[in-house]
Write a structure and sequence with these properties.
heterotrimer, A alpha/beta (368), B mainly alpha (557), C alpha+beta (342), A: 368 residues, 12-stranded mixed β-sheet, 12 strands, B: 557 residues, two-stranded parallel sheet, 26 helices, globular
């Protein structure tokens, strides 16, 4: 037998076997449905369902779009509830971050691809309402929700949790943290702060708004000019920046007031603490909404009701590390250990929408 | 243009069919999706308004700074990578030493690391609380600026330069050096007057490759660039997914492809012209010497570079992965990753898949994309054999310059619903790997004597028999090398999987990305170590079968 | 056997146009300077290249668009291109293997051919260990294994040393006579072409300018180009054309330093004295000299221009001599075209 012939015959046989094996394994790993038909969510959004929803008939599905980090625990609470109460199966599709989620909703609008969107925040509210993506709702327990969190009178977007944007600090690296905005500019804090880009991240945007709220349109740029030497870097997204902080790259980071609760609850350490300057934080409100073209609109409205219920709201703190929107929900122990801001700053949506682009451009001109 | 046009032979027809097929493939799964994005972008503003968007963006100072930064950092990174690669290339091509194979295998690694891991490794080593600062007892800011981006790019690419240059160095006949020496030239003179000019094409090739990869850099710049620095790819991403400004994204995507198109065309002229002069066809490997003969300066230079740019960052990351929460060495992170219920938080729910599932899925996706890419690149290279079609060669390189984010989005917009996501991922990754894989195979095939193939043809062998009996065995190294890249690039791909799979299809990079997103940093490191292990096993297998033996199997030896 | 019918092929550098045919059982060489299209001609026969126009017939079969594999031709490359990853036996048997012949038959054929090529017992040798001559013989054996109708050799002797080259030349002639196979080979060496071919096709800039038996080519070249490409030639300009004389058709008739006439050497084909065109002479000075073993070769300056003369005698450089020749022995060439002078 010639060696080369042997080689080639073996490889030809191996190739054939490999192709067959690969096909089988592809099916095994991705499931017949995905390989053959391209995802489960989209298929069910046919014309029949749309019509059914339009006629107000019940359907046995609910498709929710959310962001990647939406906790599995909360998904399970929703899914179990719908399974038990209505025999409805819940599909949850996740799209990277809030921006990715909004983008997906924009790209698929009019296709009837989903029913409910959970997880847009005040950054996107103006644009979402402008694009007329959502239908009005009449949540049963809307009166229990804190008044100052309601951003749309017709409840096209309904708040389901909120948090304050504040700075966090690592008490092991910084024994004497600044207490005021003034002290944050101290030269001893050179290259010690990790912030996020207001053009690309919600916390970054809200922090910029906080400085405008604090120093006014006339003063905020001067503040940033003085702050610049103390900034180590400005990352695109929150998780990049927060990762640097927990790796010990900088002792101060822009985050949520509830972030330290995560470390208390899961890592058993109170090393990471809130740094609430002058007692002020900026509100970040997360909202949900029923899509205009929802094929299972009835179930989506039920979901909005359920998410505002005490049953669900009490799950929010330890799953999402945000505050429930109802004040009648008990907060867990780890939340009581936090330094909470005395004041929550918020510039109304209309003013922000009107001026944000200018503010951002001015800010970029200073910082770039 | 060796063959005529009046008489059409079956061979010609086969080639036309093949190229027709390839052209249709590019049209359906590359041009059409990308076109869809542009059309949609124009549709969002209306064609007239789009034009003014184009003008606005082109005339803004931000765009100018994107252009300057993208080109500048790419040129600097490529120059540094090539210079730093020289001692390593010299060692690998001239000396045998224990661990040579390991180093050769390892040298591919950074190239296939997802940028998220590179960022992690760079921070661990160069960061303010990284190893270097700890050793020096300082807190220099090395990474969160222009320096950091260039450092990471050198880490990423210098091993690629080692590969390309050492391969060429191995091929330079010792006779050239000996004749220069016999003419009385000094050792340094021989290097600068003989060796360096002969190496120039390889040096240029590696420079251009590194340049293009840095030009298209995304993840590293996204994290280290802060708000000051953005490459085209980052600008496209921001406009598309953050500012939701599709028209602006399309303008940047067009600019990027325009620029990279120019680089590709210019560089291919360069490489083509210099290649023919330098290839010494009839030479064997110079005899390998042992390590004792290595000049001390070269050795020191090599070690410093290796530690600073390869071993340091990777080792730091590995050690951290094996560090427990108590600060001792241990397997805690791996236990949490691999054993369900061992972690406080449910890893499976973060990944939405088991770790075994992630591994299996990654391997399968890579195998599928890699095999498709490899087969297509081989077919294209074989049918182009002996033809100097700059147009064709350049056209096949175009996907390299196209923003992956755009390709991914386009594939989804156009084909979602018609084709399953897994297939779309494979298609998207095809364009990630194809340009490089095609380039490797094409140059290998061109070096195989035309007469070798004709000899078999005249003896009656069919096209398939020639491939099986002559080309595959003789070009084993080239093919294995190309296949390694064809597998590794999709294995490392995050962009396409995320853009098309929308996080539902969790491969290795997606899993690492998600773990970091969920603040499970140590688990992410453990996952990265698993990923590296798989890469090394893959490269080790390929390199042990393809590294040159002591005696080359050449009839002229 | 092989017919080129108005075969044309264009290149950026030149255009080929070939029209000639080779008959069965002949040993034909294609001769020409480099770049004249010799190898392309061979590649056209083999099917590695395809013409832009015209037809190529092998045994009256139109093979113009046929692939090499379909032509049943043996081809030996300049560098032999033995497959480096195969043994000698695997190389020789390759053509039969791809035709799926039984293993037994292949083995028998390999043994037979290796014996024919004087390489018995070489079956399992690694081709890298063979000498140049051995490699060539393996390459020929490999080409012959498929019983080709035609054997093509591309500059087969160019990379072999002088002694071996003569042996191999003889070998090929013997083989060709023994197997009765048509052999076409390409060479740029006129010596080689004259030594072994039955016929020679002289190529220049893509055209066959003369295709003749070797003696005819030597004695009656069509033009100055052929004359000086095939052997050495002296050109004497006259009215109505150029007289071409080979160096051995000229001789020194006056011995330097000696007044007595030296008797002209008796020549086989010398015309009788007093026959048409009596002996002519010219005064010359020897400018340089080379010893070639069988004779001496002199370059002289004369009234007629530069002359090359061979002689068994040794003359000193600088000697004044008289060169004698018989114009009737020469060959009249047409007046040189502009541009046809080499």
């Amino acid at each position: 037998m010639f060696v080369s012939q042997l080689f080639s015959q073996v490889s030809a046989r191996a190739l054939r076997a490999g192709v067959i094996l690969a096909t089988v394994l592809l099916y095994a790993f991705f499931g017949v449905g995905e390989v053959a038909a391209g995802g489960s969510g989209e298929d069910s959004s046919g014309a029949a369902e749309s019509q059914a929803a339009g006629n107000g008939q019940s359907t046995d599905e609910l498709i929710i779009y959310t962001y990647d980090a939406f906790p599995e625990g909360l998904e399970k609470v929703i899914a179990d509830h719908f399974e038990q109460e209505y025999s409805v199966s819940v599909t949850m599709e996740r799209f990277q971050d809030t921006g990715g989620l909004f983008n997906e909703v924009m790209l698929t609008r009019g296709e009837g691809a989903a029913d409910l969107v959970i997880g847009l925040d005040n950054t996107y509210i103006g644009r979402a309402l402008d694009a007329d993506l959502f239908q009005p709702t009449e949540p049963a327990e809307i009166d229990a929700v804190r008044d100052d969190l309601i951003l749309d009178d017709s409840n096209r977007l309904v708040p389901f949790d909120y948090g304050n944007i504040v700075l966090n600090y690592d008490s092991e690296a910084l024994s004497d943290p600044p207490a005021t905005w003034e002290e944050l500019l101290d030269p001893s804090l050179r290259e010690s702060i990790v912030l996020m880009n207001p053009a690309t991240s919600s916390p970054g945007r809200n922090f910029l708004l906080l400085t405008i709220h604090q120093f006014g349109e006339e003063g905020y740029l001067d503040f940033w000019r003085e702050l610049e030497p103390n900034i180590l870097t400005i990352t695109s997204g929150w998780s990049d920046g927060y990762g640097l902080y927990t790796q010990g790259e900088a002792p101060i980071v822009l985050s949520y007031e509830t972030s330290p609760a995560f470390h208390i609850a899961f890592e058993d350490t109170d090393r990471y603490k809130n740094l609430v300057l002058d007692g002020v934080g900026y509100a970040q409100i997360e909202v949900m909404g029923v899509l205009r073209d929802a094929p299972n609109a009835e179930n989506a409205h039920r979901a909005v009701d359920f998410i505002l219920s005490t049953e669900f709201q009490s799950e929010i703190p330890l799953n999402q590390f945000m505050y429930p929107v109802r004040e009648d929900v008990e907060l867990p122990e780890s939340f009581h250990q936090l330094d909470r801001p005395e004041e929550t700053a918020f510039i109304d949506v209309a003013t922000v929408d009107e001026n944000y682009e200018t503010w951002l451009e001015e800010w970029e001109a200073v910082m770039r | 243009m060796g063959s005529g046009n009046a008489v059409t032979t079956p061979e010609d027809r086969r080639q036309y069919a093949l190229f027709g097929g390839l052209a249709v493939f590019f049209l359906l799964f590359f041009l059409a999706p990308v076109g869809t994005v542009f059309v949609r972008a124009a549709g969002e503003t209306g064609p007239g308004a789009w034009w003014s968007t184009v003008v606005d963006i082109l005339s803004s100072s931000r765009t100018r700074s994107v252009v300057t930064f993208t080109v500048g950092q790419a040129a600097l990174s490529a120059a540094l990578a090539v210079i730093l690669a020289m001692p390593g290339a010299y060692l690998v091509s001239h000396f045998t030493f224990p661990g040579r194979r390991v180093i050769y295998s390892l040298s591919l690694l950074p190239f296939v690391l997802p940028s998220i891991i590179v960022v992690v490794a760079m921070i661990g080593f160069y960061g303010k609380s990284g190893i270097i600062n700890r050793i020096l007892g300082t807190d220099y800011n090395l990474v969160y600026n222009f320096r950091g981006i260039v450092l990471a790019h050198v880490f990423y690419n210098f091993s690629l330069a080692i590969r390309v240059i050492s391969t060429a160095w191995t091929g330079i006949s010792r006779r050239y050096r000996e004749s220069a020496e016999s003419l009385g030239d000094s050792a340094g003179g021989v290097f600068f007057r003989v060796t360096l000019p002969l190496l120039l094409p390889a040096i240029l090739t590696s420079f251009i490759l590194v340049f293009i990869y840095c030009f298209l850099s995304f993840g590293v710049v996204l994290v280290f660039g802060g708000i000051k620095y953005a490459t085209f790819e980052v600008a496209i991403y921001r406009e598309m997914f953050v500012n939701l400004d599709l028209p602006a994204a399309a303008v940047f995507a067009l600019l990027q492809i325009l620029f990279s198109g120019i680089f590709i065309v210019v560089s291919s002229r360069f490489i083509h012209r210099s290649r023919a002069e330098a290839l010494d066809t009839g030479t064997a490997l110079p005899p390998m010497r042992t390590l004792a003969a290595v000049p001390r300066t070269v050795m020191t230079g090599y070690l410093v570079v290796m530690v600073l740019f390869l071993l340091g960052p990777i080792t730091t990351m590995v050690i951290r992965a094996f560090t427990t929460s108590a600060g001792t060495l241990g397997l805690e992170n791996f236990r949490q990753l691999l054993i369900p219920g061992a972690a406080d938080r449910n890893v499976e729910s973060i990944l939405r898949s088991s770790v075994v599932g992630v591994i299996g899925r990654s391997l399968l996706v890579a195998a599928a994309s890699g095999t498709v890419t490899f087969a297509a690149a081989t077919a294209a290279a074989l049918s182009l054999r002996g033809r100097r079609t700059a147009l064709m060669d350049n056209a096949l390189q175009i996907p390299i310059g196209m923003s992956l984010v755009t390709v991914g989005l386009g594939l989804r917009l156009l084909w979602q619903g018609t084709l399953p996501p897994v297939v779309l991922i494979v298609l998207g990754q095809f364009f990630v790997a194809f340009p490089l894989v095609f380039r490797i195979i094409r140059s290998g095939v061109e070096e195989l004597s035309d007469r070798m193939v004709n000899s078999a043809a005249i003896l009656g062998a069919s096209r398939v028999q020639i491939l099986r009996d002559i080309e595959l065995p003789l070009l084993r190294r080239t093919f294995l090398n190309a296949y390694a890249y064809a597998l590794a690039l999709p294995f490392a791909d995050l962009t396409i999987v995320m853009a098309v799979g929308r996080g539902r299809i969790a491969t290795f990079p997606v899993a690492i990305y998600r773990l970091i997103g969920f603040r499970s940093f140590d688990l992410a490191l453990a996952m990265a170590v698993l990923y590296i292990m798989f890469c090394l096993i893959l490269f080790w297998i390929i390199d042990t079968t393809s590294l040159p033996k002591t005696r080359p199997r050449s009839e002229r030896s | 056997m092989i017919t080129f019918e108005h075969v044309s092929k264009s290149y950026p550098e030149f255009a080929m146009h070939i029209d000639f045919s080779i008959s069965e059982g002949e040993l034909v060489s294609i001769l020409g300077p480099s770049g004249s299209g010799k190898t392309t001609t061979l590649r056209l026969i083999a099917g590695f290249e395809h013409p832009d126009g015209g037809r190529i017939l092998i045994n009256d079969r139109d093979v113009t668009t046929k692939s090499p594999a379909e032509r049943q031709i043996g081809y030996v490359f300049q560098d032999y291109t033995l497959f480096p990853h195969m043994t000698v036996a695997q190389n020789v048997g390759y053509g039969l293997r791809v035709r799926h012949r039984p293993a037994k038959e292949i083995r028998a054929k390999i043994t037979e051919l290796l014996e024919l090529m004087d390489l018995p017992g070489y079956e399992d040798r690694d081709v890298a260990t063979l000498s140049g001559g051995e490699r060539q013989r393996v390459a020929i054996a490999r080409a012959l294994a498929v019983d080709p109708v035609l054997l093509l050799l591309d500059e087969p002797f160019s990379s072999i040393d002088e002694v071996l080259r003569r042996d191999l030349r003889d070998e090929i002639v013997r083989l060709q006579k023994r197997l009765g196979i048509t052999v076409v080979f390409v060479t740029h060496s006129q010596q080689e072409a004259l030594a072994i071919s039955d016929r020679v096709a002289v190529l220049r800039a893509g055209h066959v300018i003369q295709y003749d038996a070797v003696e005819e080519l030597y004695r009656h070249p069509r033009d100055r180009f052929v004359a000086s490409f095939v052997g050495e030639a002296n050109f004497l300009e006259r009215e109505g054309g150029t007289l071409m004389l080979r160096p051995e058709q000229m001789e020194f008739v006056e011995r330097p330093g000696d007044d007595s006439w030296r008797e002209p050497r008796q020549r086989e084909a010398a015309p009788a004295p007093g026959a048409e065109g009596a002996r002519a002479t010219a005064a010359a000075v020897i400018e340089s000299h080379q010893f070639l073993g069988a004779h001496h070769r002199y370059q002289c300056r004369s009234d007629l221009g530069p002359l090359i003369v061979t002689s068994p005698e040794r003359y000193p450089v600088g000697a004044e001599v008289t060169v004698g020749y018989n114009p009737a022995e020469g060959c009249i060439l047409p007046a040189p075209d502009l541009g046809e002078t080499p």
